[in-house]
Fold this sequence. Notes:
Chain A is of the alpha/beta class.
Amino acid sequence: MSKSATYAKDAKHLIPGPREENWRYADLSLIRGNVLPIAKEEPTLHKPIPISKWPRLVIGNGKVVEKPETLKGLEVTFGAGENKKSATAPADHPLERINNDLATAGVQITISKDYNLAGLEIIFVEDGPKESARHLKNMIVLEEDAKAKILLRTLGQRGASWVNTVTTVSVGKNAGLFLVTDFEAVQKTLISSLIKAQVYKGGSLDIFSLGIGLPSLRNEVEVKLKGKGARTNLKGGLLAAEGEVIDFVTRIFHTSPGANSDQTFRAVAGRKGKTAYQGRVVVEKDAQKTEAHQSCKNLILERTGEANVKPELLIFADDVICSHGATVGELDEASLFYMMQRGIPKEEAKALLVRAFLGDIFEGLNDQVLMAHFEQKIDTWMQQNLVGKKK
Amino acid sequence: MTAILNIEDLKVRVDGKEILKGLTLKINPGEVHAIMGRNGSGKSTLANALAGKPGYEVTGGKASYKGKDLLALKAHERAGEGLFLGFQYPVEIPGVSNLNFLRTALNAQRKYRGEGDMDAPTFLKNIKEKVALLDMDYEMQKRAVNVGFSGGERKRNEMLQMLMLQPTLAVLDETDSGLDIDALKIVSQGINAIRSPDRGLLLITHYQRLLRYVEPDFVHVLSDGKIVKTGDKTLALELEEKGYADVA
């Protein structure tokens, strides 16, 4: 049976519905009951503009478009990693299962022991005919004591299409990965991204994500902390304008003692925009001396905006420090008036307050180029959704 | 000579209740006016209505500012025209530094007036001068607006903003409240520094003590939404001695 036939046959059953708790906020309307054919491998129409000055890997419409001549300390292979596909498809995650069955492209990177990769930009660009799907399967492995900073970009530039990415990450003993995920999409495009990471003793994983200016984003991160001193720090921003759905899900598993996790998310729901953050932290029985913190603050710009937030802490160990905080609010009228009284027009004052609200997620990014890129995106979003719009 | 501010028979409603009930006041260039009155007499309502705070509904009367209809302007336009309100309770703005806030405000006002942005070195030189005049710590300007500031520090910060923005009319709503003697002197220095023949000042206060350092040309007594008595600086002394009941 061909791959697409499998998907076609199971599609209606596989795509989760809004009644399933884990998927209740996601907008999967594009693929529900609508089987999108796998996009052909063909040359891209656009050449993506790089953000960084780092070496680049560009995969366009499933084909390798650009790769560095040599990358010391790095082993890179392309394709969907046929030999690494799991024979038993994960049953509990429908989009992962579809990805596992149908992925045609991706990149597998191994960063060798002690190597320090100062930066790598990976770009997946999908353009060309509308109404198709691309499943990408990636793997990032950091061996012991390796360090890396990777910018992973997904550009969905086909209309009415689906880009479904699964990236498995392994951070070895005392290794450190800073992963920045960036998404762009044209109208009616669905991007779903799942990162499944394991962090071993003394290793650290930082992930920064910004979901902004996208019709529908499902952004999932799952981290298993598997050794003493393992740590992860997840930061992200969710901004949804009219008709947009930005759905973030995180799952952190503390499976061994003495590991730390920290999560900081900020969501902004504009007029008729919808954001959702579901953050689960599981501290297993043996994971004593765990420290886990989670903060998700939500800002609703207009009453028609919708911000959903669901913190879930499942703690089975007794000697732990865990905290979580979730707030939902509106822009402070007193602050707005104070700013206007000093001469700042209302919409500019709002933009300044929104930027201030998002400030926490940028702490620790420590990269001027990336900061400028994300700030630019936020400014553009606010220009389109705040400035010049009458309340 | 055009008055800076000319208020005629102003009526203002807040939360459905009429607070100002026909207030008339004229401020000419170079003049310093003080408004005194009991709690609830409408002093802060006057300040907020002049600044265009939402929820302050003008139900009657007029207010012109340098010949323009003040009440037709939006809050930020009033500021751009040179109207400054010193807040009784200055607001905290987490995540926005004082420097960023002041520079954004200053340049927004300049833009409103059709002027270009003030360049960074000039801005920094200016702010450092004013910070020194008000005996403040420059490092605090790098922190978020009023966050973690004491009451006195907030009031000094208001004065710093006023000195940086160089308004034509400053309405100072109980800027002296909550200040110790030393801070009061410093804040007064700030107010006196802005005093000039082409500017107007409206001081709203409960106490005569500020007026010891900033001498007003006129003192008005506000009672039940109207000015019931006007005099020179000796009126303030008289009020302090006898109380509102006997004077107004």
